[in-house]
Design goal:
single chain, 2 helices, mainly alpha, 84 residues, flat
Length: 84
């Protein structure tokens, strides 16, 4: 066993990380399931679908990451750009 396990910060322990993942998944699943108890008043039709906030937020996050990666590839300069 690791000698430093007693001195590790509680957020770096594997057991704590696992509990945080499980807790986060439970909270997110409960939040999406609570969508069943809400009376929706959609403006565009699509925003009345089950779990709209969850899947739209995920899709927006993925789109931002893809856009940032593409922009980074376009704006990338060589390592020697500022060398004279």
């Amino acid at each position: 066993m690791n000698d430093h396990s007693d001195h590790d910060h509680w957020l770096t322990r594997a057991s704590t990380i696992r509990r945080l993942w499980i807790g986060s998944i439970v909270v997110l699943a409960a939040t999406v399931l609570m969508d069943l108890a809400i009376d929706h008043h959609p403006h565009f039709g699509l925003d009345g679908t089950f779990g709209f906030g969850a899947w739209f937020g995920f899709a927006a996050c993925v789109a931002m990451i893809v856009f940032a990666k593409a922009l980074g590839a376009i704006l990338k300069r060589p390592d020697t750009y500022y060398d004279s």
